[in-house]
Amino acid sequence: MATVVGMSERDDDRRIGVVIVDDDALVRVGLVMMMGGAPDVRVLAEAEDGSQVLDLVERHSPDVVLMDIRMPTVDGLTATETLRALPDPPQVLVLTTFDADEHVLRALRAGAAGFLLKDTPPEEIVESVRRVARGLPVLSPSVTRRLMDRVAHTDHSERADRARRRLAVLNARETDVAVAVGEGRSNADIAARLFLSVPTVKTHVSSILTKLALNNRVQIALLVHDAELLDDDHA
Q1: Most CB within 10 Å of its CB: which of 10, 90, 107, 187?
Q2: CB neighbours of 1 closer than 8 A, spacing ≥ 6?
Q3: What is the Cα–Cα distance from 202 to 187, expressed in whole angstroms?
């Protein structure tokens, strides 16, 4: 059953609105307590299944949805795809354990802003919520590498070819920026590396997202990875 936390209308629009979705009641309680300790974050509602998410999002317009992967009726992957298809979707931050690697990668491809392990320290979870609310991805490079390495690539060559064909619509500078995003660099790092201003980098990133019909930087990084454009240090 979905639970509304507090009033249906936010009393402070400056606070980051969060909806928590997890079938484990203890996990939900823990997350509510974590978020409650942050002055700039407010839990608007919580749900125990992905089937309840769309209604809660439409009612409360959260900035971030903390989404479990494995739930009994509608899983987190399906719920993420549904939310990201909305005209003005919230950011989705996936909660997971290592045994859900393939599902996590699929969730990122569906448009999730990133993922957290459920044993992540509370202060890091709160900070991750802040990051995705600002449109920044939450991806651990070491864990991302493990995820990608463990996924079965039965169509590896075909996937790489498809990714390269998609990236071919970018001009040379946009390709440089896309590769830098795939390396996990911030806009400031990219600007310094490519001798550009930060606003120019932001413009290139926006153009890349539009041309490739992608939702966020995570999907750019995955596409660059699929195209095998990263060197060994960043693959």
Answers
A1: 107
A2: 48, 52
A3: 7
pLDDT tens for each residue of 152-172: 454 567 788 889 999 999 999
CA dihedral 162, 168, 169, 170 (to 10 degrees): 130
User: Who's near 218: CB < 8 A, 6+ residues apart?
Assistant: 108, 111, 112, 113, 114, 137, 139
What is the mean pLDDT of the segment spanning 56-72?
A: 93
Structure tokens at 188: 């400031």
What's the rounded mean pLDDT across residues 119-124?
A: 87
pTM tops 0.70, yes or no: no
CA nearest neighbour of 5 among 51, 46, 33: 46
DSSP sequence for 91-154: EEEEEE-GGGHHHHHHHHHHT--EEEETTS-HHHHHHHHHHHHTT--B--HHHHHHHHHHS--T
Residue 140 and residue 55 in contact, taking contact as beta carbons nearer than 8 Å? no
DSSP conformation letters of 23-55: S-HHHHHHHHHHHHT-TTEEEEEEESSGGGHHH
User: Does pLDDT of 10 surpass 60?
Assistant: no
Q: How far is CA 84 from CA 51, 125, 134, 216, in A?
A: 15, 21, 16, 11
Task: Give me the pLDDT at residue 148, please.
Answer: 55
